[in-house]
């Protein structure tokens, strides 16, 4: 944990009294006001490292406890869909392999009156491709959300070091114009000290 320190000066003149045979000298007295705040330059790196090791730990380190359930929902959802798509992929692949070997006892063949399968071999092939693609997308989305967890912890730790006061405001801007459509935007205001 580090401490940042800055100094502000209030200079006052003081006349030093000396014996009568010497010269009077004006001496500047230095009144230093010590202003300190608690910052740790390594905290963003620590937060990112903690989130990389255990998702959500960086948010706990940043004391953003309300974000932890969101992290686990975001990472758990792609895991759930990967498992579901993997099960369906295996079902379709097993049925397709059995059809290629000449068997008609798979779960997709069914009991239709005309003797045709409920799902053709081409339909099984399309199902295999569909669920394989969804498995791969689930992996990519999961990796992306894991990386987002790390980035969010790092950015949140960086933002905790900034001084946020009432002088900086962001407000919505809406201008109603009767001739054209309304215009929307954001207004950024910074009020300097007087």
- Principal-axis shape: elongated
Uncertain runs are none
Computed Rg? 34 Å
Number of alpha- plus pi-helical segments: 4
How many beta-strand runs? 4
Q: What is the structural class?
A: alpha+beta
Strand order of the largest sheet: 1-2
Q: Roughly how many Å apart are the termini?
A: 34 Å
Average pLDDT, all residues: 83
Strand content: 15-25%
Characterize the structure shown:
This protein has 4 helices and 4 strands. It is of the alpha+beta class and 194 residues long. The strands form 2 sheets. A two-stranded antiparallel ribbon has the order 1-2. Strands 3-4 form a two-stranded antiparallel sheet. A hairpin with an 8-residue loop joins β1 (3-16) and β2 (25-38). The radius of gyration is 34 Å and the shape is elongated. The two termini are 34 Å apart. Residues 41-191 form the DUF5683 domain. This is DUF5683 domain-containing protein. It comes from Capnocytophaga ochracea. Pfam families: DUF5683.
